[in-house]
Specification:
about 300 residues; alpha+beta; 7-stranded mixed sheet; 4-stranded antiparallel sheet; 10 helices
Length: about 300
């Protein structure tokens, strides 16, 4: 049996819709794969929201991704998959992407291969597409670590930018569910040119802020004018939580992926920022995670 840990991720990272992803250290999914000559199957799913994850191999993102890698590389055996979920379903922390990446990488390693990142992401995309659509921001972050930039989905092309080691992440997850497909469906298909120009400028500046550890630039660039104003209505007290983060010294704050998780980037004040964000929810139940940006992606354990 081969077991892989695949980290959580922040999709979009503010203005970088479907383009930027950010890997989160200390929380993620564990996926185990054994190859055999029988049918593909999912043996067990434990951990967070385990009862909500399909046990049918044809509907399970980790099993689909594992099968995709095996068939693409001429392996005729099938996977037996086990998953230990550290990430919520529809929680905005890249849970389906983490499982898909874990399934693809674990299958490859079980077959004795050392797959390229592109191979892993390509296979993982087949699993992720079944629940969240064909986008790579979370998959790239879970695979590569750091801040990732997706250049293309077809063909798969993404790069990682090492994040400043002293920057930290605060994640606040209200206990509500927001399905990615629903959250994507409410966004406009078309947008005016001046708005997209501003969004592209913010996305480019944000990537440079990470590469140069420029905190002042990050404060200005973490500004999503496309998805955040619309998705904010789906998240309890989002604007109050964001303002609390900024008032307590966060470098920036926005929605993680489709939500409901809200993320803030901080330096040495993450405990204060986390408490302020939690308090601003006004009694709404939530989960809190603080930690570093993951410097590496999925890996065998």
């Amino acid at each position: 049996m081969t077991t892989v840990f695949s980290p959580a991720s922040i999709g979009n990272v503010g203005p970088g819709f479907d383009v930027l992803g950010l890997a989160v250290d200390g929380v993620g999914d564990k996926v185990s794969v054994t190859l055999h000559d029988g049918e593909a199957r999912v043996d067990s799913i434990t951990g967070r929201d385990a009862s909500l994850i399909p046990l049918e191999a044809a509907k399970n993102v980790a099993a689909i991704a594992a099968m995709a890698w095996l068939r693409a590389n001429g392996v005729k055996q099938n996977p037996i998959v086990s998953i230990e979920k550290g990430l919520a379903v529809a929680g905005g922390m890249g849970g389906s992407a983490a499982s898909a990446v874990g399934g693809a990488l674990a299958a490859a390693l079980a077959a004795g291969a050392e797959p390229s990142a592109v191979e892993v992401m390509t296979a993982a995309l087949e699993g992720e597409a079944t629940v969240a659509g064909r986008h790579l921001d979370n998959i790239a972050a879970s695979t590569l670590g750091g801040l990732t930039i997706v250049l293309s989905v077809d063909p798969v092309d993404a790069v990682s930018v090492p994040a400043p080691k002293h920057w930290r992440i605060v994640l606040i997850t209200p206990r509500v569910r927001i399905e990615t497909k629903r959250a994507r469906a409410i966004l406009p298909e078309h947008w005016d040119r001046s708005s997209w120009t501003r969004q592209m400028a913010s996305t480019t500046a944000l990537a440079y802020a990470f590469a140069s550890a420029d905190e002042s630039l990050l404060r200005r660039a973490l500004d999503d004018r496309y998805a955040e104003p619309i998705r904010a209505e789906l998240i309890p007290r989002f604007r109050d939580v964001k303002q609390a983060a900024l008032d307590n010294g966060a470098l920036g704050c926005s929605i993680s992926g489709s939500g409901p998780t809200i993320f803030a980037i901080t330096t040495d004040n993450d405990a204060r920022v986390a408490e302020a964000m939690r308090s601003a929810l006004g009694g709404v139940g939530c989960d809190v995670h603080t930690g570093m940006i993951a410097s590496r992606g999925a890996h065998a354990i």
